[in-house]
Amino acid sequence: MFDKIMHMKIWRGVFKGYGFVFLAFLYMPLTLIFVYSFNANAINMAVWTDFTVDWYLTIFGGASAQSSFDAAFTESPERIFEVVRHSAIVALSAATISTVIGTATAIALQRYNFVGKRFYQALLVLPMIVPDIVLGIALLIFFVGAGFKLSLLTIIIGHTTFLSSYVFVVVSARLAGMDTSLEQASADLGAGPLTTFRRVTLPQIMPGVIGGFLLAFIISLDDVVITYFIAGVGSQTLPLFILAMMRRGLRPQINALAVLLLAFTFIVAALGLYFRSRKT
User: Fold this and answer.
1) Contact criterion met (CB below 8 Å) for 227 and 155
2) pLDDT tens, 164-217?
3) Which of 27, 30, 192, 253 sits a CA distance of 20 to 30 A from 267?
4) Which CATH class for the 77-277 domain?
């Protein structure tokens, strides 16, 4: 009995140690980005010299940062706000359209049976499996062949093509656990299909709808590969802007931008998981 208890303790310690190493491996790079975003070294951001918040001030147009650092190491706040606005427009538009399409498709497939339903469901999930670079090239060929001018509109359309799949999966999971007897009771009491959907079905699946919207929003906001292929001149998003900055050298302002984007991503992702897991 004693040997069995000791054996369990040893394995428990091994699993705890493995969990700690895994989390350290996963989050150590993010921690280093956060720490070095306060590094005052403008020449080599990997070498710590002193603590400063001026790199964050340069993003928001802080006077002290503008007077303390050479313009060669920073981007103007106007340019940063422009790409942030582009990212917000794309993410909000694509997430909204994807939520409508994904929710409607999930409800239709949950309600009706037809020939080829399984095949159609597999096609809906396919954009989540296809490599981003393949999907990006395919969208670029389609837009060029169809005569579209690459712009924010093409980015929104491109993001919608694969974000609808994510919303579909999230809402479908919510529909699978929904109590359909309430809809039947609503119909028995004389409510029409639209009234039943608005007052019975939608409130029940709303956590899934909101969770799907937030998930689509954050994926669109962070996307680089697909956006790289279908973004035109003057339609640069924040991830592409950071990538372009890195090509010109690893500058400390990149860390500050990455930390702000990461913090916003964590907040939105946490909200998405919360609404997705809600029971009521």
Assistant:
1) yes
2) 999 999 998 888 877 677 767 777 677 777 777 777 778 888 888 988 998 899
3) 253
4) mainly alpha
